[in-house]
Amino acid sequence: MIKAGQISKGMFLLHKDEPHLVAEREFVNPGKGSAFVRLKLKNVKTGLVLRETIKSQEQVEEVVVEDEDAQFLYRDAESYHFMHGETYEQLAVPVEGLEDRALYLKEGETYQLVMWEGTPIDIKLPYKMPFLVTEAEHAIKGDTVSGSTKQVSIETGAVIKVPLFIKKGDRIVVNTETGEYVERTT
Question: According to the model, what pLDDT value does residue 147 have?
Answer without folding.
Answer: 64
